[in-house]
Each structure stands twice: as C-alpha cells, then as structure tokens.
Amino acid sequence: MISPRHDNNSSSFPAKDSFASPPTTRYCCFVIPSRLALFGFSVIIFLFGAGFGAVGWVIANKLDKQLLEIERLALFFHILIYFLLVIFATIGIYGVVQKAARYTSLFASMILGQFVFNVASGALCLYLLFRNGPNGDPTLGGYRQCMDVVVAHPNDFFLRNLCEQTPLMKGLSVGLYVFMWLTEIIAAMVSNQYSSQLHEEAAQMEMLNPRPRESFYC
User: Fold this and answer.
1) What does the radius of gyration of the chain's CA atoms come to, in whole angstroms?
2) Please, what is the Cα angle at 142 between 140 and 148, to 5 degrees?
3) Is 204 exposed, middle or buried (0-12, 13-18, 19+ CB in 10 A)?
C-alpha cells in the first residue's frame, strides 16, 4: 500500500501576501484620485501664487512713490507670502511626482501655516482697496497722485481700474482671494489624504518584503 505523497513545497497556511489587503486609493470629491487631485491643486497654487506675486510687484513698481507707508507694507507682505507659496507648491508637486510622503506632509503643514498669514495679508489688501476718503473718493496711494500715474499711462487698463477702485476691480479681487483661500484649504486636505495612502502602501511593502533585522540599526 502506497502512502500518499506530501508536497513539501505546499503549505496549509495562506500565502504571505494574502494577509495584506491592497492599499485603498483615496479620492477627492469621490471621483478624483488623491494623487491626481493633489498634483492639480499644487499646479493651480503655483500658477496663482506666481500671478498674485507678479501683480503685487507691478503695482509696487508703478505706484511706489504714490503709495502710503501702510500700502507699501501690505504690498511687501503680499509679494513675500506668494513667493513662499510658489516654493511650497513646488514642494507639493515634487512630493506627488516622487510619491514621497515626507514632502506631501510637509506641503500640507506649510500651506496651513501660510494660510493664516495669507488671510491676514489679503484682508489688509482688500481693506485698502475698498476704503474711501471722507468725501467718498478712492484713497489708494492718494487719489490724485494715483491718477497722475494713470494720465502718464493712458492705455493701462489695469492701473486705471486699480486707482479708481472700480466695482470690476473690487469684485475680481474678492473673487480671486476667496478662490485662492479655498484652494489652499482643499489642497491641504487632499495632501493629508495622499500622505495617508502613501503610508499605507509603505506599510504593505514592509509586510510583504520585510527588511533584514540588522537594517533597523543602520
């Protein structure tokens, strides 16, 4: 009587990879993968940060002598904040491309930290744009001094609307600031989602391919 053959290679235990469920892909708005969403928001922040900073630089150059001290100070912080925002967005883009949880987490932390100063700077800029003098005239840079610059540049549509503080300029400024603030908040949330996904993927890889014991002491 021949005894049944036992295959030493087979095992009654489940395979190692059966213990590790595939990492869950996080989504933004239920449909967009968090990685793609984070890349998109980082690019938007980069472009808007560069654009906002450039606008502040143009205003500072064209109206430097006409601006009041508080207006000049507000512009300085405006340019500085958005210059830093461009750097932060670059870090976010790098973290997405390299799938580096360290950089995506750093991006979220920096965006949240910068957000407070961004709101304060934006509120001050909007206040200076909306305020009027005792007689109801615009006061940005001193209305007459500002209009002198407009007369010297009659084809500068942006500068004219800025000095006259037109409803178009006010509405556009409020809309862009609110859009930028909401974008930063969503970007920070998506960055945290994607960082969690990367940590889950790293934990699964560690379970499937554990490092040698001595590597923990290197």
Assistant:
1) 27
2) 105
3) middle
pTM of the predicted model as reported, rounded to 2 decimal places = 0.74
Query: What is the 8-class DSSP label of residue 45?
Result: H
Q: How far apart are CA 122 and CA 137, in angstroms?
A: 22
CB atoms under 10 Å from CB of 47, counted, come to 12
Whether the Cβ atoms of residue 162 and residue 59 lie closer than 8 Å to each other: yes
DSSP of 83-113:
HHHHHHHHHHHHHHHHT-HHHHHHHHHHHHH
Residue type, position 199, single letter: H
Q: Strands 32-33 and 27-28, how do they pair? A: antiparallel
Domain range annotation of the chain:
31-204
| CA 163 to centroid of chain Cα atoms | 30
Nearest of 51, 47, 56 to residue 129 by alpha carbon? 56
Q: pLDDT tens digit string along 167-199?
A: 888 898 899 999 999 999 999 999 988 888 888
Q: What pLDDT, in 10s, does the model give residues 134-158? A: 555 555 555 566 777 777 777 777 8
Residue 163 confidence (pLDDT): 77
48/126 Cα distance (integer angstroms): 17
Q: Where are the alpha helices (DSSP H) in 131-166?
A: 143-152, 157-164
CB 167 within 8 A of CB 101: no
